[in-house]
Amino acid sequence: MSEPTWHPGKLRTRAPSIRMPEALQSAAGESGTPTLANGESAPRPRWHTAAMPELPDIAVYIDRLAARIVGHRLEAVRLLNPFLLRTAVPPIASTSGRTVQGVERVGKRVVLALDGDLFVVIHLMIAGRLLWLAKGKTTARNALAFFEFDSGTLALTEAGSKRRASLHVVEGRAALRALDAGGIDVLAASRDEFAARLASENHTLKRALTDPRLFSGIGNAYSDEILHRARLSPVSLTRSLSAEAIDRLHAATQATLLDWIERLGREAGDWPAKVTAFHPQMAVHGRFKLPCPDCGAPVQRIVHAENETNYCARCQTGGRLLADRALSRLLKANWPKNIDDVA
After folding, report:
1. Which of 16, 151, 219, 227 has minimal Cβ neighbours within 10 Å of its Cβ?
2. Which domain holds residue 217?
3. Residues 199 and 311 in one domain
4. Which of the 8 DSSP states describes residue 194?
5. Distance between CA atoms of 55 and 260, rounded to whole angstroms?
6. CA 142 from centre of chain
7. pLDDT tens by residue, 85-99
8. Global pTM?
9. Count of CB atoms within 10 A of residue 8's CB?
10. Helix locations, the chain, DSSP H
């Protein structure tokens, strides 16, 4: 079997465009730096400008990929960035010539199951994407690797200057399980299994749903949609939920993910050309200040570190506005307490 070929790729760097929220802009003054009531500089939040593909996106990738490569031979893997590969044994060259027996999901990872009990595990992270190319074509913008099959070529790309996507080659199911954080498959989980996992730790619902140790494949975008559908606050604690609220959350989790798998699969056509966490059909995620499709109130947000939680105060919190650490600290007594104060 031939050794993989290495090709130095050109890395394009581009500074992200970050806008300061209007409330902070008005408080910043001529200096451009927000100040608190006591004259101190307010902490500048960091807004997450990209989003990791989640369960519905990965499900569509798997469906389209399986139709193209299951039963076909992986002829070679060409790595353009040596830092992509995170394992040394078994060597990546050992995958060449093997037949694909299946395409699976582990959390937010795409897994190519090869004969001989080998597994190629692709983690797209935030900016990684998969492209399907005609056989023989091995050029793609921002490409990190090409997987050459006898039926065509799969390209792994990653936009931006940060290299977070990863590739593992492991042998045996036990080694594959070691890459799994342990979250349950929410689409297969019964109500009681879901409830037990939910109550295993006492966290906010937002944190619990996005914890890969608890639930598999849910991230920032679909957790917002799930909680809106369930009519639950993102900051409610898992162990404080009533049995009826758990019923709603379990049903909303499965319905939301299944709806979006079907929707994204329909929109993808032959191949998902654009994978994003922001869709105009979403109820709240990425829709700050836009009207809630159910009640018409403006969608609100909480910014924490690099993540943003979107919610509808009228539908999910009884009208109460949840404190945003930066803005509520900045505005203090002027921070509105109810959606009717801003709607």
Report:
1. 16
2. 191-341
3. yes
4. H
5. 9
6. 20
7. 999 999 999 999 999
8. 0.81
9. 8
10. 22-28, 55-69, 173-177, 191-198, 205-209, 220-230, 243-268, 313-316, 325-331
Tokens of 154: 């799969």
Classify 2 as helix, strand or coil.
coil
Predicted confidence pLDDT, tens digits, the chain (343 residues): 444 444 433 333 333 333 333 433 333 333 333 333 344 443 333 333 457 899 999 999 999 999 999 999 999 999 999 899 999 999 999 999 999 999 999 999 999 999 999 999 999 999 999 999 999 888 899 999 999 999 999 999 999 888 899 999 999 999 999 999 999 999 999 999 999 999 999 999 999 999 999 999 999 999 999 999 999 999 999 999 999 999 999 999 999 999 999 999 999 999 998 888 889 999 999 999 999 999 999 999 998 767 789 999 999 999 999 977 555 454 444 555 667 666 5
Which of 177, 208, 226 is where one domain is finished? 177
Burial 48-67 (b: 16+ CB within 10 A, else e): beebbbbbbbbbbbbebbee
Same domain, 204 and 331: yes
Distance CA 143, CA 131 (A): 9
Domain count, the chain: 2
Assess if residue 256 is contained within a domain. Answer: yes
122 and 218 assigned to the same domain: no
DSSP helix/strand/coil, 323: coil
